[in-house]
Amino acid sequence: MKKIFLPITSEDIEKLKAGDDVLLTGRIYTARDMAHKMIIEGVKDRQVPPIVLYGSTIYYAGPTPGNPPKVVGSCGPTTSSRMDKFTPVLLDVGIKAMIGKGRRSAAVREAIKRHKAVYFLAPAGCGALLGSKIKSARIAGFSELGPEAIYELEVEDFPVMVGIDAKGNDIYK
Amino acid sequence: MRKVSAGAITELVSKLCIESNTRLRSDIRRAISSALRRETAGRAKKLLQMLLDNADSALKERIAICQDTGMAAVFAEIGQDVHVTGGPLEAAVNEGVRRGYKEGYFRKSVVASPLSRKNTGTNTPAILHTDIVPGNSFKIWVMAKGFGSENKSALKMFNPTVSEDEIIDFIISVAKEAGPDACPPFVVGVGIGGTFDYAAHLAKKSLLRKIDKKNKDPKLAALEKKLLEKLNKLDVGPMGLGGKTTALGVSILSVATHIAGLPVAVNISCHATRSAYGTL
Q1: Which residues, including other chains, have CB under 8 Å from residue B156's CB and lie 6 or more apart?
Q2: Which of B65, B83, B125, B150 would give a disulfide with B58, using CB separation of 3.0 to 4.6 Å?
Q3: Each residue of A98-144: pLDDT tens digit?
Q4: Euclidean distance between CA atoms A75 and A124, whole angstroms
């Protein structure tokens, strides 16, 4: 079981192999379909995105609101393939890791390999369990999107599995 | 003639929204435990155990089992001697969903228009189905249907002379296509017959049945057993990473249909398959 402290470094990524179990501690940003679309359109218009993308870890998730005082409650992964068409551009602007559920396209696999990034799988359907690993949360951007907003999450020992490593090895192949 | 108030309906629906999202159904829990006992692959065992731990965590912390608290699919079976008072039934149900999703701190996952996509902020409207039956009973089932699984559902209008094997192959292929995105192990709801839309309705309704309860029709019970065996040979497993259990159960509902048709609908549901039942 590897423990990684975010932001993830190139050295961390180099050591990871598809299928490895990893515990992540540090900052991750949630972003789903609409947030991806808005970031990409912003990037194309040379607009500053609401978060620092370079070096970041993106989590494909739309959490439930938290039981007060928590900001978020249940927070498991959504289907990654819906974000496939946006991912190569985000990798171009420097995101280092993505967390989601399910397979990615060949184009995404190639882009991960090219940029030496990594794709993690979070345990699907385990929203309550994963929610308990979120120590704090705040809305970082696109608040008008409600559950689809960009949330900045501080996580501790967030359990993931390497889905696609920097060499392009895919756990689903 | 029995009176049932809109207020009571709202309160019941609200309670069922919260229950369905926080308490894993006992038949589903038993099926996952059973799958865990049967499983030999290390990773699959670990993932199945996580599903049980997750369900415990959700119940204890009073949070949603899954962040996709879904669109509310509400099934109301109403005796024709019941008189609903104090407001329209549909409004009472929607108010119940709004309240349940607010008090449960669940995600608001409904957009008013599929094309313009503005979130309603209330997780309403619900999708309400009503069956009017003889008598004066009032029964409600609330299903929290997430769209990871819903998006993998499919329907085919078969020729009436198709073989059972072709129907089986179709159902298996839908589950195989669903893969990791629909959060296996699945519960597979099948609707056979009726009209194009009714087959789909039956497929969803069949998910309300406890999966360890045998189908009353022996032919359908045999087909369910055959499908379950074939599904579990697919080696999709939890998160699509392989395993002995790809489906926790298969439920079929079948009704009369046209001489020229054989509609078959497959509603894929995930390993949470959340629903709750109550009466007034």
Answers
A1: B170, B263, B264
A2: B65
A3: 999 999 999 999 999 999 999 999 999 999 999 999 999 999 999 99
A4: 10
ω into B134 cis (within 30 of 0): no
Structure tokens at B52: 């049980």
pLDDT tens readout for residues A3-48: 999 999 999 999 999 999 999 999 999 999 999 999 999 888 888 8
Using a CB–CB cutoff of 8 Å, tell me whether B63 touches chain A.
yes
Q: Which residue of A has its CA nearest to B54?
A: A129
Rounded CA separation B153/B162 (Å): 21
Is B176's Cβ below 8 Å from some Cβ in A? Answer: no
Mean pLDDT on B173-177: 97
Judge: A73–B67 Cβ closer than 8 Å, yes or no.
yes
Contact predicate A57/B100, CB 8 Å: no
Residue B114: asked if its preceding bond is cis (omega within 30°), the reply is no
CA distance A19 to chain B (A): 10
| Residue A115: active-site member | no
d(CA B168, CA B172): 6
> Does B108 lie at the interface with A, CB-CB under 8 angstroms?
yes
Task: Out of A8, A22, A24, A36, pick the active-site residue.
Answer: A36
CB spacing of B69 vs A74 below 8 angstroms: yes
Q: Which two tokens stand for residue A28?
A: 């991750």
The complex's ipTM works out to: 0.92
d(CA B140, CA B276): 8
Does residue B211 come out as left (phi exceeding 0), alpha (psi in the -120 to 50 range) or beta? alpha
Give A111's Cβ-side CA count (13 Å radius): 21
CATH architecture assigned to A2-164: Alpha-Beta Barrel (3.20)
- The pLDDT of residue A1 is 86
- Structural domains of chain B, ranges and CATH numbers in brackets: 2-23+65-145 (3.30.360), 147-272 (no CATH)
| Strands A97-100 and A118-121, bridge-based pairing | parallel
Are A157 and A164 in contact by the 8 Å Cβ rule? The answer is no
- Please name which of B171, B176, B124, B178 lies closest in space to residue B151, comparing C-alpha atoms: B178
CA pair distance B111, B100, nearest whole angstrom: 18
Q: Residue A165 corresponds to which tokens in the numbers above?
A: 């490593």
